[in-house]
Write a structure and sequence with these properties.
mainly alpha, two-stranded antiparallel sheet, 6 helices, 2 strands, 78% helix, disordered N terminus
Length: 210
């Protein structure tokens, strides 16, 4: 079976700019639906927001991995990125499964408090697994330039998420902004990885591997 075409920085015949634009557009539309109250179910919002970001991370890694293979890059580096893609896929699947379970049980079954706490923790642990996967990629990546790009993406994402959390937190304290759920800052972090990839592309001519 032929693999999807991923050459010259493309995936399925489209450039990464296209996929980043689609991810940004979908995030903006879902955020608008949430702000206007058109979609009130938190489960649907979480899936609509996080899944595109996770998919974008896998696409970037796949394109970079294919580019290194085509240019005769370090086999160990390609292996590190393949392990990263697998880990993100596993954690994403666990997130979807545990979040669906939590949503179903919360609506259909009356559970003891301790059980609800345990079930409520599972989706967060699955998302944390993606953070772990990125950390392992940094450790295992043997190409120093690629490692620098990944770290740069992560720092830009962290700056965006922490700045958003700090500013919004003080606005809440001053009774200016409404309260929002904390998982939004993880979503901002994933979005920041895409922003970091754009900065990498502009400054260094390549996207990075996350």
């Amino acid at each position: 079976m032929n693999e999807p075409t991923q050459t010259n920085g493309t995936f399925l015949g489209r450039s990464l700019w296209f996929w980043l634009g689609m991810t940004a557009a979908s995030t903006a539309m879902v955020s608008a639906l949430a702000i206007t109250g058109a979609v009130e179910h938190k489960g649907a919002l979480m899936i609509l927001l996080i899944v595109p970001a996770m998919t974008m991370m896998a696409i970037v890694a796949a394109v970079v991995n294919r580019g290194q293979s085509a240019s005769g890059g370090c086999p160990a580096a390609g292996a590190a990125q393949r392990r990263y893609v697998k880990r993100v896929a596993i954690c994403s699947s666990l997130y979807l499964a545990t979040f669906a379970l939590m949503t179903f049980l919360d609506q259909e079954v009356e559970l003891p408090f301790a059980v609800r706490v345990m079930i409520g923790i599972l989706p967060g642990l699955a998302v944390s697994g993606i953070f772990w996967a990125i950390g392992r990629l940094i450790v295992e990546e043997q190409d120093e330039f690629m490692r620098m790009l990944i770290i740069r993406q992560s720092l830009i994402a962290s700056a965006m998420a922490l700045t958003s959390a700090s500013v919004w937190g003080f606005l809440e304290t001053a009774d200016i902004a409404p309260h929002i759920d904390a998982y939004w800052f993880a979503i901002i972090w994933f979005f920041g990885l895409g922003v970091g990839a754009i900065f990498n592309r502009i400054q260094y001519g390549t996207w990075g591997a996350v």
